[in-house]
Amino acid sequence: xxxxxxxxxxxxxxxxxxxxxxxxxxxxxxxxxxxxxxxxxxxxxxxxxxxxxxxxxxxxxxxxxxxxxxxxxxxxxxxxxxxxxxxxxxxxxxxxxxxxxxxxxxxxxxxxxxxxxxxxxxxxxxxxxxxxxxxxxxxxxxxxxxxxxxxxxxxxxxxxxxxxxxxxxxxxxxxxx
Length: 177
Ligand SMILES: Cc1cc2nc3c(=O)[nH]c(=O)nc-3n(C[C@H](O)[C@H](O)[C@H](O)COP(=O)(O)O)c2cc1C
Prior knowledge:
The protein is α+β, with helices and mostly antiparallel strands. It has a single domain (28-157), classed as Roll (Pnp Oxidase, Chain A), CATH 2.30.110.10. The chain contains five helices and twelve strands. Strands 3-2-6-9-10-5-4 form a seven-stranded antiparallel sheet. The longest helix has 10 residues, at 89-98. The radius of gyration is 18 Å and the shape is globular. Flavin mononucleotide binds next to strand 3, strand 5, helix 3 and helix 4.
């Protein structure tokens, strides 16, 4: 059998750490994804959030199925993606596993209830209140597609990104085009 040029490359993958180290160079917003469970609110920090379409208004979030929140989001069918600013860095780390207890996580911030009933963070730069629209499982994670049913925005809020494993506040100055 003749192996066409490049066939080896099709089989080859990079290891987990190489992928993680590469993705650390991709700056991303930091979000606290919340939902409501029968026994109270749930949430976890996620940077894998992306816009999909504006018609219908759709976003996606990639959630590890091992997180406490995953099965609760699937069961409730609702979620709120709270994009945080620099004042909520500690809260993001708490929702990233720094605090395991959900009540203690939520005690670290001020929350209201979005249209879907999901917790919405008062200090969020923007919050996308969503209904689950679809799901695609791949490896350890599910890509959850979600229809945005309501949105709250605080235009005075500063931006925050995670880049090379540290949080960076976004200054007001714009780069030259
Ligand atoms: C900056 C940052 C971004 C993260 N992004 C994601 C993500 O997009 N998807 C995900 O499943 N986990 C992500 N995590 C990890 C989860 O927040 C963490 O595994 C989870 O909240 C801890 O598990 P628990 O909620 O079950 O206690 C991220 C963590 C950090 C610190």
